[in-house]
Inverse folding.
């Protein structure tokens, strides 16, 4: 494998093609073709410094002025809101439906587009994170079909952030590209993947790709020109992508060991996701939807009015106040829901199930003890 990489590159210290090493792009295309049951051309694959750079590159292609909007999910990973703001565009949020396991809602998407149009904005793209961050949902095909049909009707780009595709525990991950081709829809689709997640988890190597499906030749040329400005993505990240999309095959020397290690990691994630969901829902004042995928739970927490008032006096969001108090009293570090945005009047926090199972058990005991003492101090919510 190392010899093949060396034969098809100039090593790690030299530039590659601006879109990435042809060998790696061909491996990505083969991975996508096998995954989707639909042929993928390597010329539509662009290697990037992590999926984040691919997201920003697509947004840069789409956003022309502050009158251009991109629909992003709420709650959402802040990469989108920060990048849209930096590029001078406007964010239009659509709420995920917590009661339906944080699924997308066609009515919610349509309402966001209509509202933006009424304010004089043009929707350029819809971003979907599946599996979800911070919410941990895995979309079913019915929800995906609704999103794709809406994008086809409105003539907008679909940005499919699928970096957690290997982290689907209770229902299978289905790529948007597969559903799009099954439906035969004409939708420009940009799909993102990364070595930072899954069982690989090499977030420091900064390897990823974006695959452009159904984009016009003109748009593709402009995207390539923009990518060429940065010369090429880093070579270590490109090789990491090769390792991710081209794992050991049956009959190869390392296949059995790879399966053993990969399966062990996956099963540990699955167990911890189930443990977190079960135990969080036993804690008074906390409720959580199942973490079907990704690496997070995003539970709702009920906060008493006295605490909300104390937070306002301190100049903080209520959930920020809660999370800082949790950190101070227990050493547990979570992210307040307001950092991802949330439906008004609700409070959440994000925590990960990456720690070892014994550590996670200890964390949950501490969280339950904290919640009890917190309500003793501020009173239980009405």
């Amino acid at each position: 494998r190392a010899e093949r990489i060396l034969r098809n590159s100039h090593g790690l210290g030299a530039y590659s093609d601006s879109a990435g090493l042809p060998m790696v792009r061909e491996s990505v295309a083969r991975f996508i073709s096998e995954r989707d049951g639909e042929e993928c051309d390597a010329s539509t694959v662009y290697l990037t410094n992590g999926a984040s750079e691919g997201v920003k590159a697509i947004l840069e292609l789409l956003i022309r002025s502050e009158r251009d909007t991109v629909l992003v999910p709420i709650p959402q990973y802040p990469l989108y809101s920060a990048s849209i703001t930096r590029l001078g565009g406007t964010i239009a949020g659509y709420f995920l439906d917590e009661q339906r396991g944080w699924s997308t809602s066609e009515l919610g998407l349509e309402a966001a587009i209509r509202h933006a149009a009424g304010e004089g904005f043009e929707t350029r793209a819809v971003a979907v994170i599946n599996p979800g961050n911070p919410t941990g949902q895995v979309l079913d095909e019915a929800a995906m079909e609704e999103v794709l049909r809406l994008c086809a009707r409105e003539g907008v780009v679909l940005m499919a952030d699928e970096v957690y595709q290997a982290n689907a525990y209770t229902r299978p991950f289905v790529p948007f590209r597969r559903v799009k081709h099954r439906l035969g829809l004409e939708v420009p689709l940009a799909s993102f993947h990364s070595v930072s997640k899954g069982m690989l988890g090499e977030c420091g190597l900064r390897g990823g790709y974006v695959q452009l499906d159904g984009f016009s030749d003109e748009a593709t040329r402009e995207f390539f020109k923009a990518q060429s400005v940065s010369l090429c993505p880093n070579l270590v990240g490109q090789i990491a992508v090769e390792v991710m999309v081209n794992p050991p095959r049956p009959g190869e020397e390392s296949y059995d060991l790879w399966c053993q290690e990969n399966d062990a990691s996956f099963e540990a994630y699955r167990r911890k996701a189930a443990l977190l969901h079960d135990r969080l829902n036993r804690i008074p004042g906390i409720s959580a939807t199942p973490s079907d995928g990704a690496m997070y739970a995003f539970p709702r927490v009920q906060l008493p009015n006295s605490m909300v008032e104390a937070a306002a006096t301190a100049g903080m969001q209520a959930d920020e106040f809660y999370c800082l108090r949790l950190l101070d009293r227990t050493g547990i570090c979570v992210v307040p829901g307001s950092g991802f945005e949330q439906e008004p009047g609700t409070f959440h926090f994000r925590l990960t199930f990456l720690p070892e199972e014994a550590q996670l058990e200890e964390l949950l005991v501490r969280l339950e003890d904290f919640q009890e003492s917190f309500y003793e101090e501020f009173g239980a919510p009405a």
In short: The CA atoms of residues 36 and 177 lie 7 Å apart. The chain has a mean pLDDT of 92. The two ends are 62 Å apart (CA to CA). The longest helix spans residues 255-280.
